[in-house]
Amino acid sequence: MGRKVKVASVLSGVFICMAAIGKVMYDTNVFKRKEKHITHKKIPENSRLRMLQLSDLHNKVFGRSNKKLLQTIEEAEADMVVITGDLVDRNTRQWTQVFSLIERIVSVYQHVFYVTGNHEWDHPLTHPFLEGLKERRVTVLRNEHTALQINDSLSINVVGIDDVNSNREKVGQAFDGVDEQLYTILLSHSPDFVNEYKDQPADLILSGHTHGGKVKIPFVGSLVAPGQGLLPEYDHGMYRIGYNQLLYVDRGLGTSVVHVRFFNQSQISLIEVTHRD
To answer: Where is the Calcineurin-like phosphoesterase domain positioned along the sequence (predicted)?
Structure first.
């Protein structure tokens, strides 16, 4: 009887290990499209704003030539694409794959915005990489903003800052002259922005960097996130930061250093903003 119990225990342990490995492989290599809907009084009636956010790719490729990822991006029918840093890893040797992805994206979407992450600044060829993005018609926002006309009734501000964790941000410069009457989106690779800067006129802050907390334990939450350490406060999802200001942290697509995700599937995000009285 005791031997049967031991065998059953061993088999149960093997099954649990295999299931955990399978979950890690799935969450790390199969992405999903996360959809969020929010409202704001600055969005005119009968108007909507659709933003597709990509973050923390780290030069990862999903399948042959990113076919599935590109299909998902194209089917989103967004008004704009925002890339919130770490397109490449600090150790990326060549950019052929990521530039090919960017070229396909800009062939579909007129408005593609990008801000730097910490891995771009850790890379020895930061500036040639940024120039390569500009040459491919990506709007690189480095501590600056631009006004964007979505349709006849909707104009917005898009503000972008260089990575906070790399001490490259110039927030005052980025917001200088922003029309606060318009709906304003801030692109900041790291959500740590909200701890360091208060009362900035951004209605929605889009960030990444955390990789969703890398590993999530049911009933406990995320274990660790870059810049926030153990049990991070802002690991992924939507947060209210003061009066009428929201922070959205995307889980991201790729991995770095420890190349695993667990109960924390890779994703891209489609965020829709509509009118609120």
So the answer is: 50-212
